[in-house]
Write a structure and sequence with these properties.
With 227 residues, the chain is mainly beta. 5% of the residues lie in helices and 44% in strands. It contains one helix and 18 strands. The strands form five sheets. Strands 7-8-9-10 form a four-stranded antiparallel β-sheet, with no helix packed on it. The radius of gyration is 23 Å and the shape is elongated.
Length: 227
């Protein structure tokens, strides 16, 4: 598969060739290697010194690198190469601090949740925001989680309820009422069977199959920060 057509000068280094390929293909977050025949060309070597002549066809090998996502009060999220520490992408679009970020299982999407009342889907190769989900008036997101390969969100209502929804379709999974306060923090089990939801100083475990409260977790004297 041809991913780019680069007119490289003999004095170009392999790193410059890779930069040109990424600019054409519009991909980041991939670790790339260049081969001439079966020989890998080192990044700092000039093409002429590696024996690459006019008309030669080079082979590009790409693989997804292990990535880390960070979120900040500056309203941005960043994606980093876990091996090199290089910042690969800065994801701009939220207008308030970003509180969480979750990768899809294949690493192609990152979902961020912000105090601006939105959840955003981002391409980890281009940095493009591909979808935005916004809360309705009187609601805010308490949690974004990966459940059985799908993104789910917990939406807190002013009526002290918590609604669990599938993020992409916005279909309702379960609504749990009577939390005794605004649900500020929440977490979902990986199989989607249970939710832990916290109000000001108290958390509770809820069944998402029945919507029933299973256990109350009491004892904190200050506001809950996470569950």
């Amino acid at each position: 598969e041809q991913v780019a057509d680069v007119a490289a000068e003999p004095t170009w280094t392999v790193s410059e060739v890779l930069d040109s390929v990424v600019a054409q293909a519009g991909q980041s977050g991939l670790r790339s290697r260049v081969l001439s025949g079966e020989v890998e060309l080192l990044p700092g070597v000039q093409l002429k010194d590696a024996g690459v002549s006019d008309g030669c066809i080079l082979t590009l090998l790409q693989e997804h690198c292990q990535q880390i996502a960070t979120t900040s009060h500056d309203g941005n999220a960043r994606i980093w190469d876990a091996e090199t520490g290089e910042c690969l992408l800065i994801l701009c679009g939220h207008v308030s601090w970003v509180v969480s970020a979750v990768f899809s299982p294949d690493g192609k999407l990152l979902v961020t949740q912000s105090n601006d009342g939105s959840v955003r889907f981002w391409s980890t190769s281009s940095g493009e925001c591909t979808r935005v989900i916004r809360c309705q008036r009187g609601e805010f997101f308490s949690c974004t989680a990966l459940v059985d390969g799908d993104f789910w969100v917990v939406v807190s209502g002013s009526d002290f309820s918590a609604s669990v929804r599938r993020a992409e379709s916005e279909a309702l999974v379960c609504k749990t009422p009577h939390h005794g306060g605004i649900v500020r923090v929440a977490a979902l089990s990986p199989d989607g069977g249970q939710m832990v939801a916290g109000t000001k100083t108290t958390a509770g475990i809820w069944s998402l199959a029945t919507g029933e409260s299973l256990h109350a977790l009491e004892g904190h004297t200050y506001e809950l920060l996470s569950v």
